[in-house]
Structure to design on (223 residues):
């Protein structure tokens, strides 16, 4: 497979054992979109579905062995290990083409804060998640005009908001961030960092892993 995997349409099962992903590839001048499920961290499909042209695919795990598939309509490879859920969510958020990412945020403890815009599929979403006692981490999702981050489809920008002082700290270089109680984790410059939330704000960051030395390896899946 040579194509682009759109991260905002992907998900890992709760135990990290399965990966559902959306892939777009060009063939004879036309774009084809597929949804596949594999054993993480490999991409070799154990299930594969065709997606209607021009629509995003991917999916969201509802349990270890149950996955909701987005816009999947034709099974080219049946998946016997995972139960597939095809029912669409029918509410205001569920009508957005970026619903996999939106639903993933809500499932993982983020709260929907607000949105700007009135064109379905083009609105800018804001999600918040508590970190520490008086602060929230804010995810500003897919504000392409404001962000200009050139990080592919549907980028995010993060803010750390202090309710006690009203201070808002912008972190435009963070490519991903999430909270774990009083600890904040983020990705920046090809590295993963963590820091504790202290009384005066974000503590000193500790690098957990540096991915910059990684290069592509064609490793055959063991299944």
């Amino acid at each position: 497979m040579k194509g682009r995997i759109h991260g905002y349409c992907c998900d890992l099962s709760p135990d990290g054992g399965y990966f559902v992903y959306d892939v777009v590839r060009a063939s004879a001048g036309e774009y084809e979109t597929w949804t596949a499920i594999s054993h993480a961290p490999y991409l070799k499909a154990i299930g594969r579905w065709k997606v209607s042209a021009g629509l995003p695919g991917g999916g969201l795990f509802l349990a270890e062995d149950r996955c909701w598939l987005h816009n999947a309509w034709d099974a080219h490879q049946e998946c016997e290990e995972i139960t597939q859920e095809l029912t669409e969510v029918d509410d205001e958020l569920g009508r957005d083409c970026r619903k996999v990412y939106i639903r993933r945020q809500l499932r993982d403890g983020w709260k929907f804060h607000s949105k700007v815009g009135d064109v379905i599929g083009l609105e800018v979403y804001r999600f918040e998640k508590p970190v520490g006692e008086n602060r929230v981490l804010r995810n500003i999702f897919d504000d392409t005009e404001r962000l200009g981050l050139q990080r592919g489809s549907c980028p995010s920008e993060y803010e750390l908001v202090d309710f006690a002082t009203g201070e808002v700290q912008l972190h435009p270089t963070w490519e991903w961030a999430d909270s774990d109680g009083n600890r904040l984790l983020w990705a920046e410059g090809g590295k993963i960092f963590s820091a504790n939330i202290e009384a005066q704000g974000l503590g000193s960051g500790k690098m957990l892993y540096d991915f910059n030395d990684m290069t592509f390896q064609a490793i055959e899946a063991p299944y």
